[in-house]
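Input/output pair, single chain:
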Amino acid sequence: FIDSHSITDNYNVGQYELEVIELLNTIHSQNNLAILVGGSGLYVNAVCDGIDDIPSDSDIRSELNQRLETEGLEVLQHQLQILDPVHFEKCNIKNPQRVIRALEVCLVSGKTYTSFRTNTKKKRNFEIIRIG
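Output:
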């Protein structure tokens, strides 16, 4: 994944997980060993443990970012408190990106953001040894 994507590409950790697992399956068909180097904890954990399948919608995210600019964070915080009070109590509500992401999921799915966060570890068909 060195020089594999442009910094202007819309890319996320879910796509990364899928692409790395596909690449690892190819590598493991020819070799017994693969070494993953670098990456943030989120991206490393996505490969090793998997991530929750959480819906997204860039149009809704854009609308929420526009509302942040025009209405302010407090209005979005209040909406999140109504739609997902459990997550509202746990998340950093002063972080606009976290509030917007949670609201995006609620609005796209009609469910709470909390309901998607299962943190269920995915079974991988290879052994993982972490060195850090």
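DSSP finds six helices and no strands in the chain. The first helix runs from residue 13 to 30.
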